[in-house]
């Protein structure tokens, strides 16, 4: 499994979770493209799955992405300057790593990607976790074990780097110190600054849609939950009230730009049994579980009748207006000249208002 897949696994599963955990992860990506003088580099900090900070090789500045993370500057005015210097140093180091990798793999051209993911986790029971992993061209390459101070390599080229890094005991100790103390300290600080945001509860909006297979023999029911916070949620498909894992596919919970989360799970069923299935959702914001099934969207009879009547009236008025305009145009084309006005009927003469008519006459005529 490549590092990009590992990044996805950082997110919480849609299913039940025994305990809540808070995470702080950093993702580095260096991309070498053909005809490019220097690789493109980007670094992001992820707090509980949300983008907390960002740096790239164009701006070369580390900046906060969550509004409340700017509060860190009140306590430490140099915090983001320190992050900028660290990101620049890591950028140069990953550039050198990529140069060495290209030589080891005898690569002179093509697109190449060198990635690093590291960070820490603070679980509800007080236990901690730490991670430091590398990926090259989408494949797992190296992973660090902070307990044994060793690296796990996946191929011969990775073995060469493993031996070099394990020979640097000072570097191994720095990695362990960061994962177990510095990272956990930063995570706790960020959680304190964002405690109001993290303490809120947002209700999930849940809906069920369906997709027919081309064969017409099976269909897929999709249960979507979005706009909820906190991220822990337990969603299951139930058939006649019984949890039904067979043919169920789950997607990991993912963050929204507004700080909430979304998730979905699907199940393949026989369309004839559609009414037996319900999506069952449990969340901290709910007093009781939400149970939602698929419902065909139809327009109620009364509403449809009213809308039809309004539409018919509108079309009738439109047709009348068109006819009126055409009649008026025809009249103007066939209207008498000044020589023939004496022959106009008296009723038509009353319709011609000249300046000699006073206001009283006009009002009397139009009344």
TrEMBL record:
InterPro entries assigned to the protein according to its UniProt record, in alphabetical order: Ig-like_dom (IPR007110), Ig-like_dom_sf (IPR036179), Ig-like_fold (IPR013783), Ig/MHC_CS (IPR003006), Ig_C1-set (IPR003597), MHC_class-I_related (IPR050208), MHC_I-like_Ag-recog (IPR011161), MHC_I-like_Ag-recog_sf (IPR037055)
Residues covered by the Ig-like domain: 204-291
GO cellular component, as recorded: external side of plasma membrane; extracellular space; MHC class I protein complex
Keyword RNA-binding: no
Signal peptide coordinates: 1-16
Domain of life: Eukaryota
Biased composition (Basic and acidic residues): 338-349
Pfam families named among the record's database cross-references: C1-set, MHC_I
Membrane topology: Single-pass type I membrane protein
Chain segments annotated as transmembrane: 301-325
Keyword annotations: Disulfide bond, Glycoprotein, Immunity, Membrane, MHC I, Signal, Transmembrane, Transmembrane helix
GO BP annotations, alphabetical order: antigen processing and presentation of peptide antigen via MHC class I; immune response
Compositional bias of kind Polar residues: 353-367
Family listed: Belongs to the MHC class I family.
Protein's UniProt name: Major histocompatibility complex class I-related protein-like
């Amino acid at each position: 499994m490549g590092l990009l897949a590992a990044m996805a696994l950082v997110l919480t599963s849609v299913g039940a979770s025994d305990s809540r955990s808070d995470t702080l992860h950093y993702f580095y990506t260096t991309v070498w493209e053909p005809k490019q003088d220097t690789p493109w580099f980007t670094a992001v900090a992820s707090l509980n799955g949300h983008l907390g900070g960002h740096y790239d090789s164009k701006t070369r500045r580390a900046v906060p992405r969550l509004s409340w993370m700017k509060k860190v500057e009140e306590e430490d005015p140099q915090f983001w300057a320190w992050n900028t210097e660290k990101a620049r140093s890591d950028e140069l180091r990953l550039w050198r790593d990529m140069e060495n990798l290209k030589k080891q793999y005898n690569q002179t051209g093509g697109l190449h990607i060198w990635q690093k993911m590291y960070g820490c986790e603070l679980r509800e029971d007080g236990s901690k976790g730490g991670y430091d992993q590398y990926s090259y061209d989408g494949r797992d390459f190296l992973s660090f074990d902070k307990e044994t101070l060793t690296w796990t390599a996946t191929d011969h080229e990775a073995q060469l780097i493993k031996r070099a890094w394990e020979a640097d005991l000072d570097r191994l100790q720095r990695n362990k110190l960061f994962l177990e103390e510095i990272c956990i300290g930063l995570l706790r600080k960020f959680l304190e600054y964002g405690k109001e945001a993290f303490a809120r509860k947002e209700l999930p909006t849940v809906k069920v849609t369906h997709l027919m297979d081309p064969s017409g023999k099976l269909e897929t029911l999709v249960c979507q939950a979005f706009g909820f916070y906190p991220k822990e949620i337990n969603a299951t498909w139930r058939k006649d009230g019984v949890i039904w894992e067979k043919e169920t596919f789950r997607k990991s919970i993912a963050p929204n730009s507004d700080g909430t989360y979304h998730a979905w799970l699907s199940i393949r069923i026989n369309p004839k049994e559609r009414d037996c299935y319900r999506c069952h959702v449990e969340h901290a914001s709910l007093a009781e579980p939400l149970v939602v099934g698929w419902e065909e969207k139809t327009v109620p009879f009364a509403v449809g009748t009213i809308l039809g009547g309004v539409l018919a009236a509108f079309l009738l008025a439109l047709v009348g207006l068109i006819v009126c305009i055409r009649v008026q145009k025809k009249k103007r084309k066939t209207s008498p000249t000044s020589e023939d006005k004496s022959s106009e009927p008296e009723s038509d003469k009353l319709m011609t208002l000249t300046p000699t008519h006073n206001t009283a006459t006009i009002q009397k005529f139009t009344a």
